[in-house]
Design goal:
Two copies of one chain form a homodimer. Chain A is of the alpha/beta class. In chain A, about 45% of the residues lie in helices and about 15% in strands. The first copy, chain A, has helices spanning about 15-25, 45-60, 75-80, 90-100, 120-130, 160-170, 180-185, 190-195, 205-215, 225-240, 255-265; strands spanning about 1-10, 30-35, 65-70, 85-90, 150, 175, 200-205, 245-250. In chain A, the strands form two sheets. The first copy, chain A, has a four-stranded parallel β-sheet with strand order 2-1-3-4. In chain A, helix 5 (about 120-130) packs antiparallel against helix 6 and helix 6 packs across helix 11.
Chain lengths: ~270, ~270
């Protein structure tokens, strides 16, 4: 069974995709063909979108599912006449909100990911710069500025998590890879000892680490299963000995790790 | 006027926040105090959330707005009895979807940002690695692997845009900063000339560039307004002469730039 899915937006389409994906994950037995149509900001573009939807309906023999965050009433009414099942986020929630807030909504399009103020932009950029210049143990003298320091063995997912935190939330996220020597002594390096409250550990299943390291340096000692097992065992001992909160990255997305660690350390986002 | 907003989720809370933010941007005259409560996966946690909502309602004297992506029916019914205005994303859309798809939804919690398969994880990691090792003109010999090469003057927003594309969509995004020499000749360097179809330009208002560069190297020639004006003028001449599609980053978010350039170049995402 297969369905065509449309994400319609007067902006980037990111919100329509996020909302649509979260609903579609509830129907995992069905295959979906996904099409995003962003920047629908005129009657002509709305009519083109309707033509695309109707074409898919004819081809598939079933209604396409249409997730829409369109705001403009005229454009929404054009889409309402398509052959798709239109799930209109704006229609569902804006009226109860207007009533409760006793305010008319602005009905302005492209609001969500369209606007940027200079301060928010600089917060984001500065966080990305900090994170890039404190990746992989570099710049450990400047940890006073860090919001958090992610620690763990090489290739357990520290760098992408830190970059996500910087881009999404404006967090100053440093990371430090434990070396074999750090772990042999079961002792935190001095640069970390000073900032212990900012530490969060990432662990990983040895088998997963082995796969990841094999892609990077096939057949090296570094990528051997024995080495991966040893390092993971040691790093978890160190986390426990030093009372560093940690979790495993094996079955978690970067989003989930980020959300958990901000909650655990009680770190306030600089962007929301 | 001020309102307390709650984002409730059995997962990270990202979908609830996305939904809520996109609706709240329609009411810009109102100030919102935002609280995310993630991982509500038990009756006790649901009751704690209700207590928090009721406390805010009493303190504010008006109903808090509650954006919920909770999936479990028992937990949702507990929340429905809070003093907040509950906007229940799941309730609004899952029934029409079940009816159209003639399938019961799985009602499983934490689906959206919780699961990861190994291939999707590696696509993301490999894209981040590629992007980091092809930042700021480095690695220009490996542009054959790039999905796109972002070009522009120093500090116009190339690096954060490339990192966003890598993390969000698994795109191999290189970037190359034009030097004064490149622009003086109005000529593309050979490494770029070979991959012209992958080029996308970023421009920026000189006044904004000046502000950004002043934060980086105050009072340098590099950060002077005259230099910023000259570079922006030259780079736009080069874009036009070489027919490189470009847009200005001044009033656009990273999300919007990313979405536009993928559409313009017709680049397929590696993750969706």
């Amino acid at each position: 069974m297969k369905r065509t899915i449309f994400f319609l937006s007067d902006g980037t389409g990111i919100t329509a995709e996020t909302l649509g994906h979260s609903l579609l994950t509830q129907f995992e037995q069905i295959q979906f063909d996904k099409i995003t149509i962003p920047y629908i900001d005129s009657v002509e573009k709305a009519q083109q979108a309707v033509a695309q939807i109707n074409h898919a309906a004819e081809k598939d023999g079933v209604k396409p599912l249409v997730f829409s965050t369109l705001v403009n009433p005229e454009i929404r009414s054009i889409l309402a006449n398509s052959s798709g099942l239109v799930l209109d986020f704006f229609a569902a929630f804006i009226h109860p909100l207007e009533k409760e807030l006793e305010t008319k909504s602005s009905h302005r399009i492209g609001r969500m990911h369209g606007l940027v103020d200079y301060n928010a932009y600089m917060t984001r950029i500065n966080a990305v710069n900090y994170t890039l210049s404190h990746d992989d143990g570099i710049g450990s003298k400047n940890y006073a500025q860090a919001d958090l320091i992610l620690v763990g063995v090489s290739r357990c997912g520290k760098t992408p998590t830190c970059l996500y935190l910087a881009l999404q939330f404006g967090i100053y996220a440093a990371n430090y890879p434990f070396t074999e020597e750090d772990m042999a002594d079961l002792k935190l390096p001095a640069a970390l000892q000073q900032h212990k409250a900012k530490l969060f550990g990432l662990s990983i299943e040895p088998e997963r680490l082995y796969l990841i390291r094999q892609e990077r340096r096939p057949d090296s000692r570094y990528a051997s299963l024995a080495q991966c097992e040893l390092e993971v065992k040691k790093v978890e001992q160190l986390f426990r000995k030093e009372n560093i909160p940690y979790l495993s990255s094996t079955a978690r997305s970067i989003e989930e790790i980020s959300s958990s660690l901000l909650t655990t350390l009680g770190i306030k986002r600089r962007l929301s």
